[in-house]
Amino acid sequence: MLLLPVFAAPAAAVDFATQVHPILTARCAGCHSGDKAQAGLVVNTRAELLRGGASGPAVVAGNSKASLLMQHVTGEKEPRMPMGRDPLPAVEIEILRQWIEEGAKGPAGVARVRWTAPLEPRKPPLPAGGNPVDAFLRTEGEPVGDNVFLRRAYLDLWGLLPTPQQLAAFERDRDSHKREKLIDHLLKNKENYAAHWMSFWDDVLRNDDGVVYYGERKSITPWLGKALEDNMPYDKFVEALLNPSKKGDPEGFILGVTWRGELPAAERPPLQAAQNSAQAFLGINLKCNSCHDSFISSWKLKDAYGLASFFSPEPLELVRCDVKMGEMAKPKFLYPELGEAKGEGTLEERRAEAARFFTMPGNGRLRRTLVNRYWKLLFGRGIVEPVDDMSAEPFDADLLDWLASDFADHNHDLKYLLRVLMTSRAYQLPSVNSEPKAGERYTFRGPQKRRLTAEEFVDAIASLTGEWRYKPDNKPEPTRYVRDWELKSTSLTRALGRPVRDQVSTDRLTLPTTLQALELVNGQYLAEWLHEGARRLVEPPPPPPENLYDSGLIRGKPAEAKVKIGKAKKLWLLVENVDSYDPARVIPMWHEAVFVKGNHRTPLAELIPGTDPERLKLPSRIVIDLTGKKFDRFEATVQVDKSSTTPDVGPAIRFFVFDREPDMRRLVRIGKGMPVAAPRERFTPETLVTRLYRHALQRDPAEAERRVAAEVLGGELKVDAVEDFLWMILQLPEFQYIR
């Protein structure tokens, strides 16, 4: 049976000031207010709605069907309003409809002054109190317990769950300042701090490893990792991204993505640089006005081209909807009040001028935008929402301005900002779900409930089981176990919200989806991973055999294999696909492969009758029994047949030699150490349940939970039962949320 939502009409007459005007202010006034109101329509007052704009009256009193306002918000007339944003909820549409039907009554004057976002820095007086956040918010309420705070702080600063040992130590600590000391301890660890915050900044700076970079786009990972580890001041951080003039600077951010095929004018790399920098650092959306004057904001085509001109190697001609306008753009910053742009000199000189405008002390927008982003990451909702519309009204303008100015006063220190926010009582309140109703202003009552990010979820599984993934390396050198941010995205992490980083991404989708449910319940990737993790918990595995030879990545250029095999009783010759475009058409070759004893050379083909070592298929596995045979070396040239080196095949393979049965999950050599040490103890069902609860949820299991666990695990640990129990833990909202 299909159940449709029913919205009851307001029982009393609709009030313009308290019910209608808040909707218009939140949903419409961004485009329809001020001197540059779109289509001449201003929505601040009843009189302005009745007067309307270029298309006539927006409201016909007593007739909602004839009112253009209703026709556009319902989608009866195109374009549906608000353009480029989510449609109005049905309850808001019903309020507008009833108000019009009742005669569109209300005062003729302005009900409330439209918020105007300031540009200049402002540091209002700090109210009396301890932490500045609490002084402005007048925070009340009891903080969360130690276990909840510990989990929250570890995830927010390291992206990792605290281990049972760390939990026990924190619970034993009787120091009244232990929470502040914990935050200082977590901030001091450069490696874990940077590894967690890489994911956020990769999203914002559309940087991704493990993917193909078309055109001139480049990875900025080495620079970004060092900048985070060194806690580079934020203004210097932005300056380097916009003006990469020194060796090792992150030139990949402003290069843009060179898409295949013909590009629309609005997507050319200099326009991308303007769009990306404005969105990432100023909370401004320039995508619409990169094609034409925006319908959803006051930004014009010339604004986008003016900013893009700082990043273009040649003069830009204005192009409106892919039609050339015969007018050349001039470098112009988005806020002329910061000063007139010279726009002269080399590309490097113009980039330097753009960086100066972005970071100059008078540009308070840069600091407010960063503070707002970090606030949302820690509290679940920005002081300004949405975070990419910094012209919207903050729920507490004084709080935002004070934090932004204080951040600048402290040398743009990102760790300092995190410490101010996380040592507040507000951060330590119990999490809530407190989104305002239609027409209501947001009131802070505590941090919003937040889901684990894709990277946090995956790293948590690895921490619980000890089953970490390793980073593939193209070279035949020992690799290492790594956290998820260093790896290419998977079906699981994409379902959990990790974005495709071709564009700036500042606000991940956190709502549950059907695809997400399928991956968590029945995804092959998660199922196989949990199975291997369960095996490790039941019986910690011995170290995997190490290869005698690893070719590294082979595409077209051959490599020489010379392997000592004097003590080998068996030999495994493997060829594995790495990332070939068409693996079925790749022909690997153990070319001129021989076994050597002194001056005697025995061809590989003699030991594997019926198999041609120079016409193999992927994957290839050759096992040779050397019992009774005495050889010193195995030699070969490893390569692909010339017929499979064409771009449509795109070979990318790897050759290995082992003298013991290889572990097919770990063919490369792996250095010592894991991001979190794997558990090595032998568990009973009871001790495993306690450990998993304390590691995954930071608490002991209740008696009812122990009984359920005993039913699942039985009296003896078995892999399938442990896998089921792990799956049960991961499905708990208590695990998936930062509470």
Through-space gap between termini: 35 Å
- Write out the strand line-up for the largest beta sheet, numbering strands in chain order: 6-13-8-11
Could you name the ranges where pLDDT drops below 50 across 5 or more consecutive residues? 1-11
Question: Radius of gyration in whole Å, from Cα?
Answer: 31 Å
Structural class: alpha+beta
Question: What do the pLDDT scores average to?
Answer: 90
How helical, in percent, are the residues?
25-40%
The total count of strands amounts to 14
Q: Please, how many helices?
A: 27
Can you tell me the overall shape? Answer: globular
DSSP strand (E) fraction?
5-15%
Largest sheet, strands/sense/barrel: 4 strands, antiparallel
Notable features of this structure?
739 residues, alpha+beta, four-stranded antiparallel sheet, 36% helix
